[in-house]
Amino acid sequence: MKTEKNRAEMIREISGVNPLKCMKCGKCSASCPSYNEMDIKPHQFVSYVINEDIEALANSTSLWKCLSCFACVERCPRDVKPGKLIDAARQIVVRERGQDYLTPDEIPELIDPETPQQLLVSAFRRYRR
Amino acid sequence: MKYSYFPGCTLKNKAQDLDHYARISAEALGFELEEISEWQCCGGVYPLGTDEIATKLASVRALNDAKEKGQELVTLCSACHHVIKRVNDDMKNVDDIRTRANNYMELDAPYEGETNVLHYLEVLRDVVGFDELKKKVTNPLTGKKIGAYYGCLLLRPGKLMSFDDPENPKIIEDFIRAIGAEPVIYPYRNECCGGYISLKEEDLSKEMCRKIEESASGFGADMLITACPLCMYNLNKNNGDNLPVYYFTELLAEALGLKEEVKEQ
Asked: Is the pLDDT of residue B252 over 60?
């Protein structure tokens, strides 16, 4: 079993981000188009990694609400890149067996005749190992 | 001028218009798109994890193919452009990714980010030139009020994509002027349409598209143009046909008097 410290280290490693650079200006959350949908907001996400409270992040709905639109990455004045941290947290979840957020069985229900291939490959890349 | 061209998965299927209109317009404008043989899907999203190598290799193969031909690589789909451009930056600047990708690929010579990646719009702006494009327009779209929809992937992260000012871009507006129409500048033009979220969170994407379309209509746009098949899909799905969405290449072909040609093919 990995400890919270291990998992926090993994997030730092996978993301390549140093969360300690954050000065808590909140610009990431102000920029986030999914802000209202997130239980842990982008600026809070950074603090959770610093505090090594990874279980809360792993269970957070925010992992599946992030759009990878890079608004937070673009606007962060400290180059903390919250979107990369969220992706790393998503990675440590889906890299564990049985934790995929999207499986092929679900696809027939989710598509329509116009669904572009791009949508499926993108969703699988983000939601599944 | 001949370029290596990476069409990507969707341009071979649901977004064939984006591809066809681009090819015939390129010919009319004096450049050629030579499709990379045996290209593989870019994956749609850039793998953000610094330890993700395998998911970046399709881009490296395409980039290396262009390098071996001594050509620049042109993309059209916003997602392919985003992924390939960022992987190229990794291969140029990130030692660990470059080393591991090359160890895996075992190429004749290591790939180190030599290929220049251009989006089709950048070719229009920087090689053809919007002034020259304007001279070649035979069927100007006079009177049309068009909103440029940039979305995320072409613009951000700004320093890395170096496509245009990520907060106040103008390349598509300049394009719209070149084809004789009037650009409509509206605040939501670089906001996200929801991207892949529309698969499992339809309502969330719907709300984002509604804001984009209300913003564009409110500022007087009759239509939107985009370079991204997924933006097109999300916007069309969620707008109740109030505001038509076109690929920029379709209007380009129309302005160049080539649109009927495609229909006959």
From this structure: yes
Consecutive H or E run containing B247: strand B245-247
Question: What DSSP state is assigned to residue B116?
Answer: P
Residue B265 has pLDDT above 60, yes or no: no
Residue B61 banded pLDDT, cuts 50, 70, 90: very high
A74, A87, A118: best mutation site toward chain B, by most B Cβ within 10 Å? A118
Distances, alpha carbon B188 to alpha carbons B82, B147, B148, B156, B169, in Å: 20, 10, 10, 15, 12
User: Given CB atoms, is A119 within the 8 Å cutoff of chain B?
Assistant: yes
- Phi, psi dihedral angles at B246 (to 5 degrees): -125, 155
Contact A118 B51 (CB under 8 A): no
Residue B248's alpha-carbon distances to A36, A115, B33, B219, B256, in angstroms, are: 32, 20, 17, 20, 12
Q: Is the dihedral of CA B70, B75, B79, B80 positive or negative?
A: negative
pLDDT at B37 over 60: yes
- B217-251 tens-digit pLDDT: 999 999 999 999 999 999 999 876 689 999 999 99
| A-chain residues near B164 (CB < 8 A) | none
Q: Answer for the pair B181, B251: CB distance below 8 angstroms, yes or no.
A: yes
Q: How far apart are CA B117 and CA B124, in angstroms?
A: 14
Q: CA triplet B117, B189, B178: central angle to 5 degrees?
A: 65
Which of B196, B205, B207, B209 is the mutation pick for testing A, counting most A CBs within 10 A?
Answer: B196
Q: Tokens standing for B134? A: 């304007």
Distance CA B79, CA B128 (A): 23
